[in-house]
Amino acid sequence: MLRSLHMKLVLIMVLLVVSLMTIAGAFLVNSVNRFFLNDFYAQMSEVFSEPAFVRDLTIPKEGETDGVQALDQVLQAYVGELGVDGRNRDYYILDGKTGSYLAGSDDKNGPYLEMTPNLLCAMNQGEEGNRSDMTAAYLDLAIPIQRGGQDYIIYILDQRATVQELNSQIFQLIIEALFFGLVISVLLSFLLSRAMVTPIGALTRGAKRVAEGDFDHRIQVSSHDEIGVLTGAFNDMAGQLQTTIQEVENERTKLSTLFLHMTDGVVAFNRSGEVIHSNPAAEEMLNMPIPVGGAVGYDDLFGEIASLDTVLNLEGDCLDSETVRGDRILLLLLVPFDREKQAGVLAVIHDVTQQVKNETMRKEFVANVSHELRTPITNIRSYAETLAENPDLPPDMMASFLGVILNESDRMTHIVRDLLALSRFDSGHSEMNLTEFPFGEVLRDSYQAVLLEAQRHGHVLKLMGDGDLPAVRADRERVLQVIMNILSNAIKYTPDGGRILMMAGRTQDRVWLEVEDNGIGIPKEDRERIFERFYRVDKARSRESGGTGLGLSIAQEIIQRHEGVLTLVDREGPGTTVRMELKIGGPQL
Questions:
Q1: Which residues in the chain come in under a pLDDT of 50?
Q2: Burial class (CB in 10 A: 0-12, 13-18, 19+), 83
Q3: How far apart are CA 87 and CA 240, in angstroms?
Q4: 515 with 575: CB under 8 angstroms?
Q5: How far apart are the C-alpha atoms of 225 and 200, rounded to whole Å?
Q6: When you count CB atoms within 10 A of the terminal residue's CB, does the N or C end of the chain come out lower?
Q7: Three-state DSSP class for 139?
Q8: pLDDT value of position 247
Q9: How many helices (H) and strands (E) in the chain?
Q10: What is the pLDDT of residues 540-555, one digit of tens each?
Q11: The whole model's pTM is what?
């Protein structure tokens, strides 16, 4: 009931009238009290300042024997000027030392006078007591005088009956005016509310329809006053709101899609450390679910890096730190958003695992290149210096030294050639000559090419499954290079008298080749790095066999450019199995 505009307007008008009448009444009563108070003391001051009156009070007559009676006669002569009427205002003659009643216009109440502050001031301090309070029920004046060597107090007491009666009349008048004012205000408030509520009700219904999503609804403008202007503004707002919501929804959809599919992880926290937003990339990188507003908070995720208060009060742009979560190396960027209000913290997570690995591999690659080139250069220089310093060496020793120099030169040539090949692959300048050729024919050519070398080491080399293989679209020479590299490694790292099998086949749209040997094998801890550049399982033995450590890296690059697969097959027992897969239709260039 009280929530309706009708009742609110009625209450406002009632409260307004009551407030005005209360304030007016308070001012009237206060003015009346102040008027009578000022009038009383002004009248007393005027009378007691007359020289003749003062002289009659203080100077005794010749032969005077009773000072009290003489004072009483003087005061009776001035009762009109003092306003003494014997009903509301009286005068009293009191003893100046004891304050006892001696004479006056009110013999009935004179002996029982109350010791007021003004009376005590006149008795104790010998000063005129002329101070009174508007809230007091009386007005009084106490004047100490001396007559014929005796101390007296002239005390004037006004019971304020006239003031109280006048205040009662004012109060009655205010009550009557308040009653009529309330009746008029109620009627006016109902009329005013009716004129306002009807268009406001239409605005309310229109606002509800807009809140429900009906932005096409428009309210009829029936007046040109402020409510009519408000109605027109509401219609314009509804149209603008519809356009704005559509734009915001489009932006929200784009941002949500971007946030959901971005590769970097993002987690947002409020100022209490609770999760308010996260994307799937963050859950994947941190390897844990991050529910919004759940049990996982800032301290659980990043508390060991920096406290929430530290990030909220961060003075710089952001706080970055690297951390390891499982097998991932993560770069964290912590930044507060809305710094003035300290609304929360945004954490951006970058997975730099591959970057760190690439940097490590780059450093190792540079170190390996330096080491691989330094060894043959050192050997060449050593033997060349020996030949230069000893021109009379025996012919067979000189021929041996020259042979070493030639072998080391060939080794350097192979390293540089392989490095150039990898460089061309990395830069994308190595073009492939794609042709269609029988895959089985390449297998047989590679088999014949290494057969004599295998027999020289006493190996048994077999080729199986090459009969019904389809033709493939690829760079024949590079595919042959990969197969030769795999077979050469199998022959090289299998002890004499070993067994090497070449098994081939077809799986849907791919052909495959597996080269299996029973050689020294590759330890599990080295399998992931076997295709890295310059990586060797047994570095000393690899150099003795003339390897550069780049063959499998080049083979991997060639197969990847063919959109194929080159992997090590997990197997039981000693030896190694390398599997190569190629698309029959060739790469999608």
A1: 1-2, 539-546
A2: middle
A3: 81
A4: no
A5: 13
A6: N
A7: strand
A8: 84
A9: 17, 16
A10: 444 444 455 677 877 8
A11: 0.41
